[in-house]
Amino acid sequence: MLLLALDTATPAVTVALHDGRDVLASFAQVDARRHGELLLPAVDRVLRAAGVKLDAVTGVVVGTGPGPYTGLRVGLMTADTFGLALGVPVHGVCTLDGLAYAADVPGPFVVATDARRKEVYWARYEDSRTRTGEPSVDRPADVADRVAGLPAVGAGALLYPDTFPDVHEPEHVSAAALASLAAERIAAGEELPAPRPLYLRRPDAQVPKNYKVVTPK
User: Fold this and answer.
1) CA distances (Å), origin 30, targets 3, 7, 148, 211
2) What span, in angstroms and rounded, lies between the C-alpha atoms of 168 and 103?
3) How confident is the model at residue 201 (pLDDT cuts 50, 70, 90)?
4) In whole angstroms, how far apart are CA 117 and each of 4, 148, 204?
5) Are 110 and 157 in contact (CB under 8 A)?
6) CA 103 to CA 79: how far, in whole Å?
7) Is the pLDDT of residue 134 over 90?
């Protein structure tokens, strides 16, 4: 097993290589505006650090969000392209699950990432491997009663201390955690799903209401 993992669902552009037992190399850079520019050089950097060529990869793992439309799409399209070019499976893992897996917090706890518009993407976990329910997007004040008293993980929680007063690391997801979680699930015989983006809401860019289509006669 040699898994190439990547995630662009948060401001972090993160890549890792995992051999089924250990993380061989990883890289992350936080820059919310340069996902497309940074991702492929990060993949090259990780492969070189591990002394591995791309054609040795046996599977691709990609974070499926939730996350903003543009950033999330970069990772998903890149993962699909690698999968097609190499003829290997592409596995989707919820980005929030990767954050939970890396958290050194006894359950239950909450994972929250920044959804912008004064909202968070969030989910509740019983422990680092067990999510209870589907991820949601909400204003922090609207979920305060549901997360009261629970520790929280993630950059979204850091932004709203009134709702999430007890925040723990990590702040951003790491591809190393995604790869380790995927490798663990595969070794246990679990069939990982194909990547399906968790957008949770419509993209910021919209077609104007009075838009007129002009076609030549």
Assistant:
1) 22, 11, 29, 36
2) 7
3) confident
4) 32, 22, 10
5) yes
6) 25
7) yes
- DSSP secondary structure code for residue 216 in this structure: -
Closest CA to 54 of 121, 107, 4, 104: 4
Dihedral-angle region of residue 20 (phi above 0 means left; psi in -120 to 50 means alpha; beta otherwise): left
Joined together, the tokens standing for residue 135 give 């991820």
- Cβ 57 vs Cβ 82: under 8 Å: yes
What are the distances in angstroms from CA 200 to CA 14, 68, 69, 84, 164? 22, 9, 9, 26, 22
Residue 138 near residue 120, CB atoms below 8 Å: yes
Torsion of CA 47, 50, 51, 55, to 10 degrees: -40
**What pLDDT is recorded for position 216?**
58
Average pLDDT over residues 9-29: 97
Q: pLDDT, tens digit, for every residue of 40-97?
A: 999 999 999 999 999 999 999 999 999 999 899 999 999 999 999 999 999 999 999 9
What one-letter code names the amino acid at 165?
P
